[in-house]
Amino acid sequence: MTVDGHLIGLEKSGRAIRVGLIGAGVSGRAIALQLSTPAPGIRLVAIANRTIGHGVRALRDSGAAQWLIAETVHEAERAIADHKPVLTDDPSVLTRCEAIDILIEATGTVGYAAQVVLDAFAYGKHVVLVNAELDSLLGPVLNTKAEQAGVVLTHTDGEEPGVAMTLLRYLRSLGFRPVAAGNVKGIVDYYRTPATQQAFAEEYGLDAKKTASFADATKLSMETTVLANATGFQVGRRGMYGPACKHVSEIANLLPAEQMLRTGLIDYALGAAPYTGAFVIVHEDSPLKMAQLAYYKLGEGPFYVFYTPFHLPYAQIVSTIGRAVVYRDATVKPLAGPVCEVLTIAKRNLKTGEILDGIGGFCTYGLIDNTEMARAENALPIGLSEGRRLLRDVSKDEIVALDDVGPGSGGLAEELWREQHGLWQTAAEGSPRDS
């Protein structure tokens, strides 16, 4: 049975998938609204957020007239049994609640989110990540732990990695050979800051720092790292090529053919119509098949662009939830170890003693690179950069290395990253980058 058919069946039988949501920011509120429409066969039954007021707003916006603020797992389970939504500031109430089938992690944090995910695994919960910050840094090691626990960890459809991966898997099932994939991006300016993005953030009710990460290539790099780890495709150079084009269909002729065929490429189209969504490039050199593709207006080949002209994470997450619970199918998950990483790059000239302000801040931006190159440079991952004190001056656009900063907090995120690094230590560590 198809996922939609199965979900309709669950709806009719009164056995809807019970979803808990961690995080009630802008993304979380949009998801809560969509799941409370409701989507067939799926029910949002609980929200955990560190600030209760934000959770209240999410529930009110989604049409809830009443809810229970739960302090214990027992209180949550009883409320859910009575068909009353649950709100809590303690995520463990949701991770340990037997009346919840799957969790959505949508906080955009790293250390906090990692703890939530591990706790969910310990109590047999599937997890959907709406969190490129976490997935790009620790996806491979967390996926290993999910498999050990017998649960599904997946990035969501609707975010660009999920849109691209869903399209890529479909094309692969048709017998096509995907050789490149990526985002359609409107703007990339490495030097955007919370100050430059403040007006835009206020207009749309967003956080200025997070908005800066959307423009300065950090979020793009995190999303494409998730996609690289899921496909095994590499980047052709640090930061990708990002060719400007009028329409995404032009990108097949703007990326290096040899690299696409040799390693597969992750990249992005800049300023290209339809201005949103994701693309996949396939290669086909059979003359008869090329004639068919030309007849159906796909171009002359041998590289052909397919694209999805939208991405709606708050809505398309429904598909990911259904696939994870019904078929134990991850929309997007790492093939194995990290293929790419997001490096920390100086946004301006930085001085000894400065404290780095992390993703979307005034100090640094993130760029994707192949893991082999990142480890050869001993680069500091952007996801571990916040709060680190510089031990030397770092020039604008220079990599910030692990040796350039003082020790981190030693928290869970750093512990997991070092575990991941140990599991898949790159053979080329210490090798210089090709000039």
Describe this structure as you would to a colleague.
- 38% of the residues lie in helices and 16% in strands.
- The protein is of the alpha/beta class and 435 residues long.
- The protein folds into three domains: 3-158 and 314-327, Rossmann fold (3-Layer(aba) Sandwich), CATH 3.40.50; 160-309, no CATH class; 340-423, Antifreeze-like/N-acetylneuraminic acid synthase C-terminal domain (Type Iii Antifreeze Protein Isoform Hplc 12, Alpha-Beta Complex), CATH 3.90.1210.10.
- The strands form three sheets. A seven-stranded parallel sheet has the order 3-4-2-1-5-6-7, with helices on both faces. Strands 9-8-10-11 form a four-stranded mixed sheet. A two-stranded antiparallel sheet has the order 12-13.
- Helix 7 (132-149) packs parallel to helix 11.
- The longest helix has 18 residues, at 132-149.
- 50% of the residues are buried.
CATH class of the largest domain: Alpha Beta
Number of helices: 16
Assign the structural class, choosing from mainly alpha, mainly beta, alpha/beta, alpha+beta, or little secondary structure: alpha/beta
Give the SSE order as H and E letters. HEHEHEHEHEHEHEHEHHHHEEHEHEEHH
User: Termini, distance in Å?
Assistant: 53 Å
Helix content: 25-40%
Q: What proportion of the residues form beta strands (DSSP E)? A: 15-25%
CATH topology of the largest domain: Rossmann fold
Mean pLDDT: 95
Strand order of the largest sheet: 3-4-2-1-5-6-7
Poorly predicted residue ranges: 427-435
* CATH architectural designation of the largest domain: 3-Layer(aba) Sandwich
Shape: globular
| Count of distinct strands | 13
> Could you name the CATH homologous superfamily of the largest domain?
NAD(P)-binding Rossmann-like Domain
Sheet bearing the most strands, described?
7 strands, parallel
Q: How many structural domains does the protein architecture include? A: 3
Radius of gyration: 22 Å
